[in-house]
Amino acid sequence: MRTVTHHGRTTAYRTFDRGGGGHTLLAVHGSGGSHRIWTSQSAVATDHPVVALDLSGHGESDDVSAEPGYETLSAYVDDVVAVAEAASADVLLGNSLGGAVVLTALVERNLDVSGVVLAGVGPRLPVPEDLLEWVSADFPRAVEFLHKPDHLFHDADEETLDVSRGALRETGSTILDRDLQTAHAVDLREQLSGVEAPALALVGEYDRLTPPYFHEDLCARGVRGVQRRSLRVSLARLTPVDRHRFVPSDEGRGVQPVETSDPDGVDYGWVMQTTFVLTIVVGAPIVALLSIPRTLPTWGARVEFAIRVGAVVWFLVAVGVFLYARRTDAGDGGEDPEDVVEGDKDGSDAPAEE
User: Fold this and answer.
1) Is 37 in the same domain as 72?
2) Per-residue DSSP letter, 114
């Protein structure tokens, strides 16, 4: 491991150089990770030197005293800038929170790079409230939740899962809690237009932690894309899932939307459908009961009465369904963290990440 000293601390990084003479790639891990998550991707070092760092407090890097949120994000950006300069890296790879760190480095530090690869990244990275609570109050439960199918991995073998669990335990609840709270606070929606470097955006098809609608929102907000054939072969293994999608975001096409949700995790399609069904199921009996003591001599009067009562029922049901969806991430956008079940495996729904 090599190190670089900056801002009063030391950041560790590993260089994989197998004779490649192309661009030097700097890989930035996500929440609770370290440089080790990029071991498989080091195979591309035959074409491009690969550098993987440990963010502050992770792996072999010194920790930093920083509050969760922007203060921590800014400290991680300092790490990336320092290593990029020390290693002469000109292409940045960021996974999940690491992607947010990369984007922040580009828009706030004017880091000069030739390209960017973003895996499982969105303008926002909301984290389920239950998971945030478990990390500090019941760490083993949080670790197991993260290793359910389609979370950190799609369907990894038990040996891989054991290694990953051990790595998270080594990172510890304090650092993971800081990372997840920082990810939860990320909001780059108004800054993405400032990203000038060509970008390749990847999304895990089965990922439930950073689902496809995060990715769709990222592409919709003006991050430029590259021709997918440029990096397709060498970077296809960026995420630990069976399938991936490449989106040239400047073309605005390439992937059919998988979700109809906003970045806060509310699936409005599910809200509308559920509201429609419940309004009929609940509203019809209410209209019938309320009409009994009333005199409604004509069909016009009956229709008007049904519309007036139904409108109130519809409004109350819609508000209730929306609040429920916002609290539990109901619909395709996600589930209550306690009740996540395995999604469809035919490739038509959801993805995974770190």
Assistant:
1) yes
2) S
Query: What separation in angstroms does the CA of 314 have from each of 54, 276, 320, 331?
Result: 52, 8, 10, 19
Residues 79 and 27 in one domain: yes
Percent above pLDDT 90 for the chain: 45
Residue entry with tokens 């992770």 = 58
The answer, as to whether pTM is greater than 0.90, is: no
Same domain, 119 and 8: yes
* d(C-alpha 204, C-alpha 154), whole Å: 9
In a shared domain, residues 287 and 242 = no
CB 121 within 8 A of CB 214: yes
pLDDT band at 342 (very low <50, low <70, confident <90, very high): very low
Same domain, 191 and 310: no
pLDDT of 231 over the 80 cut: no
344 falls within a domain: no
pLDDT digits (tens, 9 = 90+) for 282-334: 888 888 888 888 888 888 888 888 898 888 988 998 888 888 876 665 544 44
Residues 238-274: pLDDT tens digits?
333 222 333 333 333 333 333 333 444 456 667 788 8
Confidence at residue 255, expressed as pLDDT on a 0 to 100 scale:
35
User: How buried is residue 288: exposed, middle or buried, by Cβ count under 10 Å (0-12/13-18/19+)?
Assistant: exposed
Q: How many domains does the chain have?
A: 2
Buried (b) or exposed (e) across 168-198, using 16+ Cβ within 10 A? beebebebbbbbbbbbbbbebeebbeebebb
Q: Is residue 147 part of a domain?
A: no
Whether residues 200 and 316 share a domain: the answer is no
- Decide if 253 is inside a domain: no
Q: Dig out the tokens for 4 from the structure.
A: 């670089």
- 55, pLDDT greater than 80: yes
Do 95 and 226 lie in one domain? The reply is: yes
- What Å distances lie between residue 46 and 21, 42, 49, 89, 258, CA to CA? 8, 8, 7, 16, 35
Strand partners, 124: 187
Range of the domain at 284: 268-328
259, part of any domain: no
Structure tokens at 182: 């920082």
324 and 199 in a common domain: no
